[in-house]
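Render this sequence as a predicted structure.
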Amino acid sequence: MDKKCGLYRNQNSIKVKKRPITFFPYFIYLCIVVDMKTIEELLQPDSPYSNVIVQKQFHSKKNTVAYVTIKNKPRVLKWFVPGFKQQMETEVATLKKAAGELQVPHIYNVDDPRNVITMSYIMGENLCDVLHEKTTTISEKLRLMVLLAEWFARFHQHFKTVDEFYIRGDPTLQNFILADRIWGVDFEESRKGKPVEDIAGCCASLLTTDPMFTAEKFQLCKQFIKSYNDRSQWKLGTINDDVAYALLEKIQWRPGDEEHLRTYAARIRKHGL
């Protein structure tokens, strides 16, 4: 995985992370190999997608995702590999429940036999890119962290039940688009959990994108956490251990940064952000 805004390389097969099955700090992950496909394989002459025009295929760590036009209308096709049928069902259920209430893509069609979702295309800039542009001022970055915190607070409130929370999962900056507002995308890892998992994971995403662990990044994380606490009816409590854990989880993807990640994880656990 590239450290600059976490773009995944376009490979024919990759390993996919599952949740850890042993107790911290010893990580053992179950992995499966996914045969990645190109979007052109879906667009055969005898398929219902033969009239689709591909504009761009996105980098994806698991599935095939592309920006396309269908009858001159912009759409996103997300093609799940057979082994990720459950993840497709999770994404569909999350998007349907969030429809009209949260800034998420609209579902136009669910093709169960082919494991394909057709969604609206959110025209804007990737939030990770915006936060790392040299022309983006620190005041604008702080404002964006407030907007991101507001998005998470609304998501957690919308999906909260009497007894438990539902989190977005995979809370990396790359899964947000800045348009008229901040929009969330990619919900296949949504699940029951604690809000702090999303917030800590997002902080870890910010801290570990080049340039890593700068004073500005820590400032943005503090703004993000404060803004979330200000906008939610519950408090995160101490988040240091959760951020440290999220940093250590990244070692499996970035073994070359292991020493750096462990150093900062220990520092944050001891001294905080």
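Summary. The CA atoms of residues 171 and 202 lie 5 Å apart. Confidence is low (pLDDT under 50) at residues 7-34.
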